[in-house]
Amino acid sequence: MTYLADVAALTRKDLRVELRGRDTLPAMLLFVLSTLVVFHFAIPDDAGESAAYGLLWVAIVFTALLGLARAWVPEQEHGVLDGLVLAPCDRSAIWLGKTLATLAFLLAAQAVALPVFVLFFEPLDATALAGVLLADIGICAVGSLMSAMAAAARAREVLLPLLVLPLAIPLVVGGVGAAVSADGERFLLFLLLYDAVFAVLSWASFEYVVTE
Amino acid sequence: MGLALVLALIVAPEDADQGISQRIFYIHVPIALTAYFCFGLGAVKALLLLWRGDERYDLESYVAIHQGTIFGALTLITGAIWAKASWGVWWTWSSNQLVLFLVLFLFYCAYFMLRYSLEDGPRRARSSAVYALFGVALIPVSFLAIRLAEDFIHPTVFTRDGPQMSGTMFATFVVSWGAVTLLAYVLYRVELAGKRLDADLRELREALQ
């Protein structure tokens, strides 16, 4: 129970920091909306409806990257991470707290972006939405670990997309498949498998990444 | 290695469908298998590093992945040549193995970016090790993803099941595989020795100063 309480406290801390500073969420929102407008000019009229779904996934991945790049910045600026690592809680709780907070930002950005996508481009059915949710979980789980890794590096803004994009390719496959394939459940199952494998891996390995 | 080349180029019978171009199979496939093996070895060493905390595994893991990336690049090149020879294009998205190698190649290039932008020390060793472990998890997941992606990218699956391998062909294949593995092992030892010498030298220089 204390583990869950720690996670909840850490998530709450991130949400409160965001509520007071408003550094990440407005940027993500504006980014995803501008991207959708750019898409209108980027897709030729005769490209067919599937192209729009593909581009939606490009927008989602890059919006998530934008949020992830900011994920550990408050900790980095004020040396909070050292304090958290020293705190008497399981280190993986730090990862889980950050994953949940990033997921909350991403979902909030999508709560605006997906209706706008439907308005501008194509409708989304329940399978496609489930695909978005599952892929969000995966990219936040993997991304918050990669972001913590990149935070210690030189040129971390450049490094993070390089680390995450190859890992995000299966998520894009799953997400696009859930949206366009007639047999969408298969892709949801695949996304579930991805989430399980990489969440466990990230959860188990976070401790090694943040300790000196 | 020489024996393998002779066998592959002269002794093995020509494929009825693909002719001479099929001979690159004896180089391409062993290189690809060796690359997988190197990535796997790198991940095993990475796991040992996290488990035991012994510094030497860091270098071994790095060298194995370095070899794997070189062999991965060679796989892409030989694969492109084979694609050009048998399908008339340098690149095709319908070959799952090639696409997988492209994803892996990108992933392991990011591994080197990560490694070179972190400060030398135990934290770099552990971060690299974690990333290497993600790599071996990514191999089957990506393979599955690429299989699934065919569903909406290419409705018809491109099958290239040639005739079953004859005895000489199989023997040639095994000899080539052995030769490439041996080559990889020698390169691995040489690079490891070089890197160790480098580290020792640096330590000595620091001690002298």
Question: Which oligomeric form is depicted?
Answer: heterodimer
Overall SS class of chain A? mainly alpha
Largest sheet of chain B: none
Determine the strand fraction of chain B and express it as a percent band. Answer: under 5%
Query: How many whole angstroms does the radius of gyration of chain A measure?
Result: 17 Å
When the domains of chain A are counted, the total is: 1
Strand content of chain A: under 5%
The helix fraction of chain B, in percent, is over 70%
Biggest protein-protein contact in the assembly: A-B, 38 and 32 residues
How many domains would you count in the coordinates of chain B?
Answer: 1
The CA-CA distance between the termini of chain A, in Å, is 28 Å
Gross morphology of chain B is globular
Order of helices and strands of chain A: HHHHHHHHH
**Number of continuous helical runs of chain B:** 6
Residue-averaged pLDDT of chain B, rounded?
81
3D shape of chain A: globular
Helix content of chain A: over 70%
Regions of chain B with pLDDT < 50 over 5+ consecutive residues? 155-163
Cα(first) to Cα(last) distance of chain B is 46 Å
Rg of Cα set of chain B: 20 Å
How would you sum up the major sheet of chain A? none
Provide a concise account of the structure shown:
The complex is a heterodimer of chains A (212) and B (209). Chain A has 212 residues and is mainly α.
